[in-house]
Design a protein that fits this description.
This protein has 125 residues and is an alpha/beta fold. The chain is built from two helices and seven strands. It has a four-stranded mixed β-sheet. A three-stranded mixed β-sheet has the order 1-6-7.
């Protein structure tokens, strides 16, 4: 396990709603392999940003939370989070959903009229 990945038992689960999985299939067909990064910083704050895999450079201040397997998508979609945000959300299960409305212009779904949104649930709840 590398420095960027927390121990397995501390890793919150990341899930996709059916709507999020469907949108990822469409985005994958257009843009190739994908990744998420959730910074908790500027722009949409707690919204996960979807990029072509490798377009957002991750480093020591980021944590790889999951490799999401999506039916119809050949490779896993990685889900990264800023370490500072992970420390706050480490006790939660993250659910990536899609809602109507335009999010950040940086995320691939912006032209679709929808945006990804992370919902959370306390682990064990």
């Amino acid at each position: 396990m590398d420095e960027q990945t927390p121990p397995y038992d501390e890793t919150p689960r990341v899930e996709l709603t059916p709507a999020a999985a469907a949108l990822l299939r469409r985005l994958r067909a257009t843009h190739g392999p994908l990744m998420f990064h959730q910074s908790g910083g500027c722009c949409d704050g707690s919204a996960p940003m979807c990029y072509p895999e490798g377009e957002f450079r991750t480093g020591g201040s980021d944590v790889l939370l999951a490799e999401l397997h999506v039916d119809g998508v050949e490779e896993p979609v990685t889900f990264w989070m800023a370490r500072s945000q992970y420390e706050v959300w480490s006790h939660t299960r993250l659910i990536v959903d899609v809602v109507e409305g335009r999010g950040s212009g940086f995320s691939l779904e912006a032209p679709e009229g929808v945006r990804f949104l992370t919902r959370s649930r306390v682990v064990g709840a």
